[in-house]
Design a protein that fits this description.
single chain; Glutathione S-transferase Yfyf (Class Pi), Chain A, domain 2; 4 strands; alpha+beta
Length: about 220
């Protein structure tokens, strides 16, 4: 059985779970509290970060490497595109969310509100949280710009770009900090992904001491 070492509100872990779900590949989840620096886990991934995938004895670490591996090993359905142009655009946008959104939004909101407490890093920095809330607006505007011109973010078909984006946004949504009412077109795109079977397990995730808003698990939010 495939195993994914993860944290429930790690967007990178969520991206891998979504890819596995879209490809209809069975897997088990193993929560890894990375702040404990468990020796057995460090052998699997010396960076000490999640996600890590174990697939028939093969160890693959890092969400991008895992998703590329899954695309190569299990190419149907494709989540990267069928042409060089489509693949380049899907990869570009996946990295936009894994790097730019993560640095400007996820690290400011999710880290300060949740991860910092788990790591014993002290009180949340309100300035960073405020910056994250400001930054998310232009990312939502970019999603709206793309979906006004395309069926999905990178083109006609669902790709890793959509899954990376929704993985990050779902974490911020769990914390109640996505201004959906101001970005209805982005909300409609998110609702399409939220209703997919691959997304449903994410709606049952919970972190002790951090309760999501009631709308988090509501498909008609």
């Amino acid at each position: 059985m495939r195993t994914v070492y993860h944290l429930p509100l790690s967007p990178f872990s969520r991206k891998v779970r979504l890819v596995l779900g879209e490809k209809k590949l069975a897997f088990e989840l193993q929560v890894e509290n990375i702040w404990r620096r468990r020796e057995e886990f460090l052998i699997l991934n010396p960076t000490g970060q999640v996600p890590v995938l174990i697939d028939d004895g093969l160890v693959v670490a890092d969400s991008t490497a895992i998703c590329e591996y899954l695309e190569d090993a299990y190419p149907t359905p494709t989540l990267i595109g069928k042409t060089p142009t489509a693949r380049a655009e899907a990869r570009r946008l996946a990295l936009w969310f894994d790097l730019k959104f993560a640095g400007e939004v996820t690290s400011n909101i999710a880290y300060e509100k949740m991860t910092k407490r788990l790591l014993g890093g002290g009180e949340p920095d309100s300035e960073r949280i405020r910056a994250g809330k400001d930054n998310i607006r232009y990312h939502l505007e970019y999603i709206e710009f793309l979906t006004e011109r395309r069926n999905w973010l990178a083109g006609d078909n669902l790709t890793c770009a959509d899954l990376a984006a929704v993985a990050h946004l779902s974490v911020i949504d769990y914390l109640g900090d996505v201004p959906w009412s101001e970005h209805v077109k982005a909300k409609n795109w998110y609702a399409r992904l939220k209703s997919r079977p691959s997304f449903q397990p994410l709606l049952t995730d919970h972190v002790a001491g951090v309760l999501p808003p009631k709308t988090y698990a509501d498909l008609d939010f």
